[in-house]
Amino acid sequence: MSEDEAVWSASDGSGAVRVGVRCACGRDRAWQALHDPAGLSRWFGDLTPGWSPGCRGRIEIGDGDFFDLSVEELAEADHLAFRWRFLGLGAQSHVRWLITDRPDGSEVTVEDRQPGRTPAETDAMIAGWTDFLGRLARHLRTGETSRYGIRDEIDGTVDLPDAVADPLDPGVVHRWLPIATDGFVPRWFFIVDSDGPRRFRLDDWTDAADEVTFRLAIPQAARPTSCAIRVTRAGAGRRLSFVHAGWCRLDLPEHRARQLRRRFTATWVSAVAHARDLALTR
């Protein structure tokens, strides 16, 4: 990225962040990269069905990650405003993409608001938007696709009411997490989807009051992936979070790693949504 394309960021401490990037192109070219689904797919993800006020849609990143969104405002060549949830599970964010003129081009600014964000979550959001806007600037400068191929972690959160059984309790976790034991400890993690059922060896299961960790072996991969599930306080309730890491370190062909990551992402989303549904129906 050139100095003229430096990304800047700011936060007011309330869970709102602003991240921007200066671009050498004019407003119309920048707007096309944001608004046109074909342009958006070159640096961010695949949007369906499109941007239209009141429309509900989804942006697929390509490795299993996605955002479910609802469009609120659209002003031609000026701004887009929408609400979205990562993986359709997390806390809802209000996002606004704004384009302004500069003497030497244009500036694209992202405003992302989510009350209750922790400082760590705010820092992570700034880092994420800094990366994405850097990819936007690179695409606008070169005309080439600048999307990433695969992200190392599958991660997500879901908020639960407080007065429910602990989702990590041994008598509860087996109800929503797709695992099976060998009679003593968890030993297998299952995926059941349109590609057929498959089980993956599970090792080093460790559980504590607020965290479960384990490793999952991927056939023909150089090393296993690692998983951590945690429960933390979140306002008046609790937050269930998961991280499944190691997808960039498998030493498998990227298309194979991406295919597996998509399947595991769908499985995690389904499992965590089931944990939420169990909590809400008690």
UniProtKB/TrEMBL annotation:
Family: Belongs to the AHA1 family.
UniProt name for this protein: Activator of Hsp90 ATPase homologue 1/2-like C-terminal domain-containing protein
Protein species of origin: Mangrovihabitans endophyticus
Matching SUPFAM superfamilies: Bet v1-like
Every Activator of Hsp90 ATPase homologue 1/2-like C-terminal domain range: 27-140
